[in-house]
Specification:
InterPro entries: DUF503, TT1725-like_sf
Low-confidence stretches: none
Organism: Oceanobacillus luteolus
Order of helices and strands: EHEEHE
Distance between the termini: 7 Å
Number of helices: 2
Strand content: 35-45%
Strand order of the largest sheet: 2-3-1-4
Protein name: DUF503 domain-containing protein
Oligomer: single chain
Helix content: 25-40%
Pfam family, one: DUF503
Largest sheet: 4 strands, antiparallel
Amino acid sequence: MILYAEVECFFYDGNSLKDKRSILKRLFAKLTNDHNVAVAELDYQDLWQRTKFGIVTISSNSNHAEKVIQQVLRIVDQFPELERTITTVDKL
């Protein structure tokens, strides 16, 4: 079972691409270290107030994969520097 999530977020406090990259680097490191998922920025790389990134997990059990994605999304929601706006989750 491969579960994939696309997440769009807005940054309200950052003032530059450098700020955005710093926040994303911390977020991506936490997600990959804590939950063993793959994360990559997919779109809006040149906009400092917006991002879209993908998260992928692989598991032999669909319930486990869904649980991992939900835990990862809770971590994203806990980052005060960004706001999650649009999220889509698909099974591949």
